[in-house]
Amino acid sequence: TTKAEISSNLFLMYYLDQLVLTGAINDVGAAVMVNVPKSYRAGIEISSKFLINSKLQWNTSLTLSRNKIARFTEYIDNWDDWSQIPVDHHNTDLSFSPAVNANSELAFTPSKSFTFRLISKFVGKQYVDNTQSDERSLDPYFVNSVHIAYTINPAFCDEISINLLINNILNHQFESNAWVYRYFSEGEFRVLDGYFPQAGINFAAGIMLKL
């Protein structure tokens, strides 16, 4: 008989002078942050657990949210005269704050010693800075991984656990982070930016002994 457990949580966080990422990096590669006067995060979190039978279990989580800055002023460096150009923005999405996050773990345990897990993750569209510009955004991505664990109990120790993790089994190409620097030069706005592509299919293995 399938057993199910579902829980949900509503949240609202209202901020004054929240410190947020601008999407830029400084001269040593550290992320630059700035205070924005008024902002908020609001949404719903839903998690579930389905015990389908004694060998199969499915765990999921989903977060839907709005992450907004009511108003802030962006200052763009003017390389022509070394001044700064102020640009006002209203009701824009916070950088690196996707509206949708979802996770799934399907665990199959055919025996006490062996467990197979299919781990899936979806991350919605993210903006690299706080201007909500599609030109400076990260596409949504959906990544699947497999975790295999095998446990034995030999005479010379309590337990040996052998683990194999196969990440991104579908070899999906995606970026999970980026940086951007906007500036004005020779009469037009320009951009310097960089994106961080993630690894394709990759493996990690380990052995753990309990004495």
Describe it.
- The chain has 211 residues and is mainly beta.
- It is 0% helix and 74% strand.
- It contains no helices and 13 strands.
- The strands form two sheets. Strands 1, 2, 3, 4, 5, 6, 9, 10, 11, 12 and 13 form an eleven-stranded mixed β-sheet that branches.
- The chain is elongated.
- The model has no long low-confidence stretch (mean pLDDT 94).
Key structural traits:
mainly beta; about 210 residues; 11-stranded mixed sheet; single chain
Structure at a glance:
With 211 residues, the chain is mainly beta.
Write the topology of this structure.
Blueprint (H helix, E strand, L loop, with lengths): L2 E23 L5 E23 L2 E23 L4 E11 L6 E12 L2 E10 L2 E2 L9 E2 L2 E12 L6 E9 L7 E11 L2 E10 L4 E9 L1
Parallel strand pairs: 3-11
Antiparallel strand pairs: 1-2, 2-3, 3-4, 3-5, 5-6, 6-9, 7-8, 9-10, 10-13, 11-12
Q: What is the alpha-carbon Rg in Å? A: 23 Å
Mean pLDDT equals 94
Q: What percent of residues are in strands?
A: over 45%
Ranges with pLDDT <50 over ≥5 residues? none
Number of strands: 13
The total of helices stands at: 0
What best-fitting shape do the alpha-carbon axes yield? Answer: elongated
The topology string of helices and strands comes to EEEEEEEEEEEEE
Specify the structural class.
mainly beta
Distance between the termini: 38 Å
* Major β-sheet annotation: 11 strands, mixed
Helix content class: under 10%
